[in-house]
Amino acid sequence: MLHLLDTVRSIPTPEGIELTLHLAGPVPRAVAWLTDFLLRLGVLLAAAWVLGMLGAFGWSAILILAFLLEWLAMAAFEVWADGATPGKRALGLMVLHDDGTPVGWPAALVRNLLRAVDFLPAAYGFGLAAMLLNGSFKRLGDIAAGTVVVYREPGERAAAIPLAPPVPAPRPLDLDEQRAVMDFAERSALLTPERAQEIAALTTALTGAPAGREHQRLIEIANHLSGRRA
Amino acid sequence: MNQDAFRTRHEEEWLAFEQWLDSASAKRPRDRAASTTFGEETAAHRYRVLCQHLALARDRQYSPGLVERLNALVMRGHQVLYGAHPETGPAVARFFAADFARAVRRQWRPIALAAALFFIPLIAVAAALQIWPDLVHTLLPQKQILRYEEMYDPANKRPGARAAQADALMLGHYIWNNIRIGFQTFAGGLLFGLGSVFYLVINGVLIGATAGHLIQIGFTTPFLSFVAGHSALELGGIVLMGAAGLMLGSALLLPGPLARVSALRMQARAAVALVYGGGAMLALAALVEAFWSPVTHFDPSLKYAVGITLWLLLAAYLLLSGRQRAD
């Protein structure tokens, strides 16, 4: 049941394994869009300020720039800048094909031109409805282009378990329990010591650690589980 | 094998592969050559070994941090090995030398439908205005009628553009306005084709009303000699954009044996060729309309000849190019 609720999408590869992508939801994508929108507006205003002094030629250039910014700039960034417009990059997002490969012009153009429909009836109404109705947060343009928006990095995570003298768990742990202990040990560097201790204090029944030592004891058990030996 | 031994044994391979990824995805060739620890030819093998490590790490329930790290590494390898883009320059040249015309011939059905949706209202309205001239007042706003009449008045030296406006400014306007309408016509197809049908018909009616009215009040020569030059590219471009939109609509309405989502994805991939080509035609049309169409010191018959030649060239290009061999 858990995987049905998660925002993880797995894609099978020719090597016979499954890769996991971390999908981005409507809120970070809306923020990325707004960032891009303000950037485009800023560029257009700056260009209008400069080019406006050049008379008819300048105004012609402004109109062409407005056209490029409105319709093609986002697609160009997605093709040439690793699948990310500046806004997406700022939020750590990127666009990929459904199979996890980088997008090319066909997909980037389709998903960006179809924004015009996603935007209907107002403020990305259709796009939001589509994102909430399918399992991969795809707006209509993504469905037609066969693309997904994912997180570039799988979230902040301290990958190494902190070193501590290994101590075996007082009783055998099943697989889920082992994973939970190791996951906690990896994450503990990202938590405040008080919070880590608070969580660890829930496990005294398991660890039998003296009060105040639960956090350290879990790290020691994780060290043992990961195979370190004194 | 426990996690720590696994990590120690393979750490070096992972770092080497990561280094190769960094150099392979570098934009500049200079960075690409720098400091790879192994030859390019072993990369695929090393990638498969890495895939095996990821599978093992998952199967043995190693810690999420390690699995996550390997997953990220395999993900990058997947993108570098399977995601290579062909070079843009040759691909664009090949597209306009052959692939565009092939796509147009392959998609003749939606194109014929789009042409009918566009040209039938255009001709019907233009013809109707010859019989019932007053109809124009229900089709176009009064202000626009007056503006068109002023623009194409035979007494006016530069028809099509209001006197004070330079050709260059109109280029920007045509690109901004006409290609935008083209893109909207395409995107509207996602609404079960209705958006494309709407834009095709409404543009047919508006253009037909303008043409019919100006012909009916006797401004035929200035009007036709102005529009002759860019008509092939502009009307053709709109029809192609509409056809691309109709393809999206048909995928939703008549998906055949496919799921609607799959049909949509396939048709969108095919339709994008018409969007590239139609967009290029509309951009060219804007150039012609800005710099050739307003020129009046040639005889109208020369301008008609140029217009007809462009229609014939366009037809020949779309019907004949890319027939040499199917590669």
Notable characteristics:
heterodimer, A: 230 residues, mainly alpha, 2 domains, two-stranded antiparallel ribbon, 4 strands, 54% helix, B: 327 residues, 13 helices, elongated
Description of the structure:
The complex is a heterodimer of chains A (230) and B (327). Chain A is 54% helix and 9% strand. With 230 residues, chain A is mainly alpha-helical. Chain A folds into 2 domains: 2-151, no CATH class; 158-230, no CATH class. Chain A has a two-stranded antiparallel sheet. In chain A, strands 3-4 form a two-stranded antiparallel ribbon. Chain A is elongated. Chain B folds into 2 domains: 3-82, no CATH class; 88-320, no CATH class. Chain B is elongated and about 90 Å long. The chains are: A mainly alpha (230), B mainly alpha (327). Chains A and B meet through strand 2, helix 3, helix 6, helix 7 and helix 9 of A and helix 1, helix 3, helix 4, helix 9 and helix 12 of B.
Element order, helices and strands of chain B? HHHHHHHHHHHHH
Of all chain pairs, the largest interface belongs to: A-B, 62 and 58 residues
Chain-averaged pLDDT of chain B:
86
Determine the N-to-C terminus distance of chain B.
Answer: 51 Å
- Strand percent estimate of chain A: 5-15%
Kindly name the structural category of chain A: mainly alpha
Largest sheet of chain B: none
Number of helices in the DSSP assignment of chain B:
13
Task: Identify the strand order in the major beta sheet of chain A.
Answer: 1-2
> Helix amount of chain A, in percent?
40-55%
Coarse morphology of chain A: elongated
User: Taking Cα atoms only, what radius of gyration of chain B do you get, to the nearest Å?
Assistant: 28 Å
- Describe the oligomeric state of these chains in a short phrase: heterodimer
The N- and C-terminal alpha carbons of chain A lie at a distance of 39 Å
- Give the number of domains of chain B: 2
Number of domains of chain A: 2
